[in-house]
Structure formats: structure tokens, C-alpha cells
Write a structure and sequence with these properties.
five-stranded mixed barrel, globular, 2 helices, single chain
């Protein structure tokens, strides 16, 4: 029994180590206000959809929004939000600008665990499990996993 437990613990440790530590989910926004910036582990496959909308900061969370709906963006680890000249902008892992708050953006990826599949609580649980951090209620219940640039879009 002890050998089986040891193997499971070692395997779990290797898997968690491969995911890497979860970075802090907040960045300093304009005026020092903390902005929630959840990230997900880099994977080998991503949803293959596109979303077009405005990069928005609402309730200290970053969304892509269209006229009716707003999706909390779940960024890849290595992406970074920063304030430049008083404006929040996001860069990818190579430092390339993805967009600034107020910009129209087109992001590859896909909606994760839509609210229609299991309700808001199930969607929030899915996003929390994926990011490794609790999703603040103020950040809504629609989620978009951002795929890396050049992932076939």
C-alpha cells in the first residue's frame, strides 16, 4: 500500500511541477488599483475560435466585450498586464503588445465552460480549477481562454 501511495504522490508532484507555480492573479492598475489578471497553464492545444470586441477594464477585471456580453479573459502564463502612460495594456510572452484598454482586439481561443452548461456556479468552478485561483464575483461568469498568437487563426 505504501508503494502505491508514494507513486501517486510523486506523480502528482511531477504533474504539478510541470504546470509551474501559479503567478499572483493581480497587477497594479492605474492609480495603484489591483486588477485581476488570471492566467492558465500553457498547453499543446487551444480552442479554435475568434472573438472580436473591445478590451475593457470593468470592476478591476479585464474583459473583451461586444455590445451585449463581456468575457473575463483567461490569459496564458507568461502574458503580462502593465500600466503605460496611465493606460492598462497586455503583452504576450515575447513582450509584443496584445492590446490596450479601449482597443478593438481580435483574440483566438474559445469560451470555456459556458454558463449554459451547468450554470454560473459550474462555470466559476471550472475557471477556478483551470487558473488555480478563486475568480472574484465582480468578474462575471463568462470566460474566454486566450490562445497564443499564431495558433492557427
Amino acid at each position: 500500500m505504501w508503494k502505491v501511495t508514494a507513486v501517486v504522490v510523486i506523480a502528482a508532484g511531477v504533474w504539478l511541477g510541470a504546470r509551474g507555480p501559479v503567478p499572483p492573479p493581480v497587477v497594479d492598475g492605474p492609480g495603484g488599483a489591483a486588477i485581476f489578471f488570471p492566467t492558465v497553464p500553457i498547453g499543446g492545444a487551444y480552442p479554435a475560435a475568434l472573438i472580436h470586441g473591445t478590451l475593457e477594464e470593468r470592476n478591476r477585471c479585464l474583459f473583451v466585450g461586444n455590445h451585449r456580453e463581456h468575457w473575463l479573459l483567461l490569459w496564458l502564463r507568461g502574458y503580462d498586464a502593465r500600466v503605460v502612460n496611465g493606460q492598462v495594456e497586455v503583452a504576450d510572452e515575447s513582450g509584443q503588445l496584445v492590446g490596450r484598454v479601449g482597443d478593438e482586439v481580435e483574440l483566438g481561443g474559445g469560451e470555456g465552460r459556458p454558463i449554459e452548461v451547468g450554470g454560473a456556479a459550474a462555470a466559476e468552478s471550472w475557471a477556478t480549477d483551470l487558473t488555480g485561483v478563486d475568480i472574484p464575483e465582480r468578474c462575471g461568469d463568462l470566460y474566454w481562454i486566450v490562445a497564443p498568437a499564431g495558433a492557427g487563426f
